Amino acid sequence: MTEPNQIRINELARELEVKAKAIIDYLPEAGVSEKKTHSSSIEVAAAEKVRKHFRELADAEAPPAPPTPAPAAGPAKPAAPLAGPPGVKPAIGGVPPARPGIPGAAAPVAAKPSVASAAKPAAPGAAAPKPGAPAARTAPPPPAITKP
């Protein structure tokens, strides 16, 4: 257990939102000369020095607050309409508008090339059939059905 006048380094690190290693590296500058680990305790006075140091670092690294924008003079302009043929409303949600002349028909979608149509090369390391060996059997095609 820690004594009332001490605090564990890992608790202090959690409080300051820094790694315990960073605190351990700073301890000699704060006046703590013993070798410490994350589960070691340090005096409250040394912890105050550590808090001050890391809060100053955090304040120095924090970017300045952005200036608040001044209110715009006059009414805001409406967004420019999307370019398109006259009399056609812009698309909603990226869906193209219907083609003129065909009610309810959407614009055609380009077909994607099929991967299955490409011929696959033989697997690397696959052995070619030996000469004189029987050929691999393949299933005969299904019989054709003719309607009378």
Concise summary:
This protein is mainly alpha-helical and about 150 residues long. The chain is built from 3 helices and 2 strands, in the order E-H-H-E-H. The chain has a domain at about 5-60: Arc Repressor Mutant, subunit A (Orthogonal Bundle).
Can you walk me through this structure?
- The chain has helices at residues 9-16, 20-26, 44-61; strands spanning 6-8, 41-43.
- Helix 1 crosses helix 2 (20-26).
- The chain has a domain at 6-61: Arc Repressor Mutant, subunit A.
- By secondary structure, it is mainly α.
- Helix content is 22%, strand content 4%.
- The radius of gyration is 38 Å and the shape is elongated.
- It has a two-stranded antiparallel ribbon with strand order 1-2.
- It is built from 3 helices and 2 strands.
- It starts with 5 loop residues before the first strand and ends in an 87-residue tail after the last helix.
Global shape: elongated
- Broad structural category: mainly alpha
Count of DSSP H/I helices: 3
CATH class of the domain at 6-61: Mainly Alpha
In angstroms, what is the radius of gyration? 38 Å
Instruction: Write the element-wise H/E pattern from the N-terminal end onward.
Output: EHHEH
**What's the CATH architecture of the domain at 6-61?**
Orthogonal Bundle
**What is CATH's topology name of the domain at 6-61?**
Arc Repressor Mutant, subunit A
Task: Note the topology.
Elements: E1 6-8, H1 9-16, H2 20-26, E2 41-43, H3 44-61
Antiparallel strand pairs: 1-2
Helix pairs in contact: 1-2
Summary tags:
elongated, mainly alpha, single chain, 3 helices, 22% helix, Arc Repressor Mutant, subunit A
